[in-house]
Design goal:
The structure is a single chain. The chain is of the alpha+beta class. It has a seven-stranded mixed sheet, with helices on both faces. The chain has a four-stranded mixed sheet with strand order 1-2-4-3, with helices on one face. A hairpin with an 8-residue loop joins strand 12 and strand 13.
Length: 247
């Protein structure tokens, strides 16, 4: 099946059922806020290495979870209750995404095992998601010991869906604590789904599970029509607004 080539001035994507078996849907385009928001609203995300053209994916199956379904082990709960880590939202977005790009991150391995840096988070990606953050659509959760950033995550929020992008940690359980506080925030604010994108052992242990892409897209279409919580999630300034995506 041929891969769809995106045009610079046209933001439309092909139907996701035209993706290859491994999920590759389209090539090219840009990382403008309009294109990124349109992509996420349709179950599509960018993922490519430095030196490659922008690659757009829609995986089948899709890894998802409900915020209420996070699995908290006894040891993790003990860590949460100990207040070893402090937690914030949208306080240091750029440092979180840069840390995801440069330090070990959580994927399909144990959090105590060293992983490769997320080499797909290039300077262009960092700039694009920082712009989405400034517009109130990309959000971070930070965990600290004292004043030291030791873990966190970031993603994109549209409607009642949070699309997770990456996690990192420099201290054991730091990113899991961030994820716990994210799930708690999403539950309290009526979010219904976390799009975890790719199937990994780490995400399974946290409570995510794969579902067919067709089922995911059907649910996504409904949830992205809801108002979006746009703005800074940490300072109380975010507001529920209807998102209109220009094509």
């Amino acid at each position: 099946m041929p891969i769809y080539m995106l045009q610079d001035e046209v933001y439309d994507f092909p139907p996701v059922n035209q993706a290859t078996q491994d999920g590759l849907l389209a090539i090219g385009g840009d990382l403008s806020p309009e294109r990124l928001l349109l992509a996420y609203s349709q179950g599509i995300f960018p993922w490519y290495n430095v030196g490659e053209p922008i690659l757009w994916w829609s995986l089948d199956p899709r890894m998802v979870m409900k915020p209420a379904d996070m699995k908290v082990t006894k040891s993790l709960w003990k860590t949460i209750e100990s207040n070893k880590f402090s937690c914030s939202f949208d306080a240091d977005f750029e440092n979180v995404i840069r840390s995801c790009a440069t330090v070990r991150r959580d994927n399909n391995t144990s959090e105590d095992e060293a992983d490769e840096p997320a080499t797909w988070i290039s300077e262009d990606m960092i700039h694009a998601y920082c712009e989405l953050h400034e517009l109130g659509f990309a959000h971070s959760v930070e965990t600290y010991i004292g004043n030291e950033l030791v873990g966190g995550l970031y993603g994109v929020s549209i409607g009642k869906v949070f699309c997770g992008e990456s996690m990192f940690h420099t201290k054991t359980d730091a990113s899991k604590v961030a994820f716990y506080h994210l799930c708690d925030f999403l539950k309290r604010n009526g979010f219904e789904l976390i799009d975890a994108q790719q199937e990994t052992g780490h995400l399974k242990r946290l409570g995510a599970a794969p579902i067919p892409r067709k089922e995911f897209i059907k649910t996504l279409k409904s949830l992205v029509k809801e108002n979006s919580l746009i703005g800074n999630w940490g300072d109380g300034s975010a507001e529920w607004k209807k998102l209109v995506i220009e094509r």
